[in-house]
C-alpha cells in the first residue's frame, strides 16, 4: 500500500476460486486482517468443483457467510453467461443456461437470502 499512499484505494477487490468453502473464508478473512481499513469487494468467486451438490454447498456457505460480514461491501459470483467461460470454470457453477435463463443455482443466488438447500 505504500505505493499508493497519496491516493489510497477505496476498496480491496478480490477474486477467489476453489472447491473448499472454508478455505475461501480463511482467504477472505486473511486479506481483511492484512488491510482492515478497507471494505472488501469480492468481484469474482465460485466453486470450481464439477459436482453440482458440492458447488451448491460452497455457494450457500459463502453467500450466507459474506452477507453477515460488515466489512464485505459487495460480492459477485461467477458467472452469468450462456456458455462456460473456459475449462477452469465448472459447468456445475453456471448461473445462466444456454438459452439465457437462470439455472437453479442462478435463481437461488438472485432470489434466496439467506440461501438454503432446495426443499429445506
UniProtKB/TrEMBL annotation:
Domain of life where this protein originates: Eukaryota
Stretches assigned to the Asl1-like glycosyl hydrolase catalytic domain: 9-109
Signal peptide: none
Biological processes annotated in GO: fungal-type cell wall polysaccharide metabolic process
GO CC, alphabetical: fungal-type cell wall
Protein name: Asl1-like glycosyl hydrolase catalytic domain-containing protein
Gene source species: Stachybotrys elegans
Lineage per the UniProt record: Eukaryota, Fungi, Dikarya, Ascomycota, Pezizomycotina
